[in-house]
TrEMBL record:
Function: Component of the origin recognition complex (ORC) that binds origins of replication. DNA-binding is ATP-dependent. ORC is required to assemble the pre-replication complex necessary to initiate DNA replication.
Protein keywords: DNA replication, Nucleus
Protein name according to UniProt: Origin recognition complex subunit 2
Protein family: Belongs to the ORC2 family.
Transmembrane segment boundaries: none
Swiss-Prot/TrEMBL GO biological process terms: DNA replication
Major localization class: nucleus
Oligomeric and partner information: Component of the origin recognition complex (ORC).
Cellular location(s): Nucleus
Length: 296
């Protein structure tokens, strides 16, 4: 999370990277209180108390202000200009922009409820995007009413460069959870990271990935055997092997190529090795991941 701009004493704009799995409602509330509202003694407050504090401060700062005719919700266009601060608007407004409000750290019902309470305040404005087409399942009618969303379809097919940078490839190659870390730091290991990514992928992509994982585990075990030591097999799966495993009529070459490209180039959970595809995880990690995916 980071602050993009503070135009003047009447306007605050915070940006939240929801696709970062480490971002939580607690981090977001602390940043708003400390960075924007300059409140320091909030460490021991609960999440509900922090939300109440933000709303109370915004209401107190605005209760004596007299808005100009078009200032009911803040002059957003004026706020975005790179000009000298304007003092003609007395009201203060907080704009919160969340990229992927359905991100892994923000999906819980309690988090969505707290965000809806914030956005229901007349001086706090929530601007957000969603990544998953089923993201509307996050919200019950009562919570959605509090959000009061105005929806705009801006579907795009951009590569997930910014999003994927938060899924550390170093964690995917190493057993980071076996290091000397606290229980909180170990809560999101490489297996959980890939599991969260694949849960948001479609069924065909998950099927392709699981075939690659199973073949990888099978070949690794064979290569450790006495027979495999003399005649080792490649660890990965060829394009034809994946297609055969999916069934002759289950997919065509174009769909399979698109799926492999998505897994390799966009979410980066497989890689090419000697014209075969292998997971970026180690064998024991793949075994754990398959258990999670089969039970989800």
């Amino acid at each position: 999370m980071y602050c993009m701009k503070e135009s003047d004493v009447n306007s605050f704009f915070a940006i939240v990277c929801g696709y970062n799995p480490e971002i939580t409602i607690g981090i977001m509330l602390d940043d708003i209180l400390k960075t924007h509202l300059k409140e320091k003694n909030t460490k021991n407050l609960s999440y509900v108390e922090k939300v109440d504090t933000i709303i109370r401060i915004m209401n107190q700062r605005n209760e004596l202000a007299k808005p100009l005719p078009d200032d009911e919700f803040g002059d957003f266009a004026e706020f975005m200009k790179d000009e000298e601060p304007s003092t003609k608007h007395a009201k203060q407004h907080l704009y919160i922009c969340i990229h992927n409000i359905d991100g892994p750290g923000l999906r819980s019902k309690s988090t969505q409820h707290l965000l809806s309470v914030l956005s229901s305040n007349r001086y706090i404005h929530l601007i957000c995007s969603v990544d998953n087409q089923l993201s509307n399942l996050l919200w019950e009618p009562s919570i959605e009413d509090k959000f009061g969303f105005m929806r705009f379809n801006i579907t795009n097919f951009c590569t997930y460069f910014a999003e994927s940078e938060y899924y550390s490839l170093q964690d995917l190659y190493n057993e980071s959870s076996d290091g000397k870390k606290s229980s909180e730091e170990k809560s999101l290991g490489p297996v959980e990271i890939v599991a969260n990514i694949l849960k948001s992928a479609n069924k065909k992509h998950r099927q392709i990935y699981m075939i690659i994982c199973n073949k990888f585990i099978e070949n690794e075990k064979y290569n450790e055997s006495e027979e495999g030591s003399s005649q080792p097999k490649p660890s990965g799966s060829t394009h034809q092997e994946i297609k055969s495993s999916m069934g002759v009529y289950s997919t065509d070459d174009a769909l399979l190529r698109d799926g492999l490209s998505y897994l390799e180039n966009q979410i980066k959970v497989i890689k090419k090795k000697q014209n075969t595809f292998i997971p970026t995880l180690k064998r024991n990690q793949c075994e754990k991941l398959l258990v999670i995916l089969n039970n989800s």
